[in-house]
Here is the input.
Amino acid sequence: MTQPISEDDLIASLADALQFISYFHPEDYIRHLTESYRREQSPAAKNAMAQILVNSRMAAIGRRPICQDTGVVNVFMKIGMGARFATTRPLDELVNEGVRRAWKSDSNPLRASMVREPLFDRRNTGDNTPANLHVEMVAGDTVEIHVAAKGGGSENKSRFAVLEPSDSVVDWVLRTVETLGAGWCPPGLIGLGVGGSAEKAMLMAKQSLLEPLDMTELRARGPASKLEEMRIELWEKINALGIGAQGLGGLTTVLDVKIRTFPVHAASLPVGLIPQCAADRHVHFTLDGSGPAELAPPSLDLWPEIPLDGLGAGARRVDLDRLTRAEVATWRTGETLLLSGRLLTGRDAAHLRMTRMLAAGEPLPVDFRDRAIYYVGPVDAVGDEAVGPAGPTTATRMDRFTEAMLSETGLLVMIGKAERGPAAIEAIRAHGAAYLIAVGGAAYLVSKAIKSARVLAFEDLGMEAIHEFVVADMPVTVAVDALGTSIHREGPARWRTAAPVPA
Here is the structure.
């Protein structure tokens, strides 16, 4: 019989694993992304992939988060019937202690994103607890643990439907993926759970995302089952939609498609779909009572050599301190800009508070006239950093505030990730403004362009407070120009079935 698993070994293993996945991509993800990067033909999508790969290598070297949204913790445990824990504490209490320890690391603090109460005050727990814990009792005397951190941008794009038994799952998936936009930060994965019940289908979809990426090998050897045939079919047809990296239009939207199934009632066909973003973070380990888990970091030789100076090739430099409406009017969709100067920040909570103040006739604590705002909630700085990883959040959530901000504050430029809706695009056109995107999944790379940071207002909102960054050559792409032209409409339309995906 194995030795009992101590509290300390479980807690330390979970904390180490959560730190590990905050800065190390799985090797299979890097291999598949590198392959897609090398065959990508869309310049905008290829540049986005390059930034994600450079960011990934920088995060691995610097041991800092790949993405500023360090995620909701998901812990999947398979506990052997013969395994023993040397504790009387509840399992979820031990798991949450591991989360707390990981998030409060002095050398690599992670961003707390969990709110304790979902409906009313939504106060942040401050340590990213609680985790979502799933336990399965199995044969054996060890404990297998799979730890994952799931960002809000991709989690928000989860979908579920109960189809008719005669319906096509492939058709539903394609229709659904077309509606997801780019807020889930492709290129990533699509996980599907088919069968069981509503909750079983969604759980299987999430669990499928933990499986090794093997689409390259699968396509090389050919399918050995109908399920593998479906995976290849979905991979080909989703990529043929032309959505591309960050929704910019291109050959690769998904690196792999995973499917799990379960027996189902004869009258039902429940299907869960969960996308995984470019910050694909998970790791597996086993505890047997002999000590804490040991995790092996990937070799730095795994990443392709991509020169940093090539990421901004041909870009126009912009001085944010001398920004004018006339200059913004000259920007065109798809153009790369390098931003320097003072940049304001703000996201959901700050926008809600500001629009309520405007409606009440109250003055705002910050002057936005002819300024740019970055939708971001950064990680806390360590050492000599001005700020921790600071990638963009999904701009679509700010659409409801756009007209008020542009018309009542004089705001000129917005920066985020993903597409804007029709009303926001019309407001941008009507006010001669612009919307720019930074690459989701390149948070550490973006943070290197931030030279200083200070809180200007709403300090009580934590990472959602209004900051002022001073940036130097921060790379962005014009996504909606002053004419109302959107790259997230034009790019995918241009690349949809434009060319077959190369073998």
